[in-house]
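User: Quick sanity check before I run a bigger batch. Here is a single chain. Can you write out its predicted 3D structure?
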Amino acid sequence: SARAIGLHRLELTVRAFNQSGIKLYETCGFELVGRLKDMAFIDGEFHDELYYQLIL
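Assistant: Done. Predicted structure follows.
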């Protein structure tokens, strides 16, 4: 497990429009800790990037 190898926290980023990913991460216990507005420019539009963490 992650704890067994000395990890204390897992982090991830996800684009705010990725609702299925967000639902999965929250179901796994990840908590939203931040948002970077207009972080990614995709198909002519800016999108927010969300930061999640899970304390083990």
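The chain has a mean pLDDT of 97.

User: Great, the batch can go ahead then.
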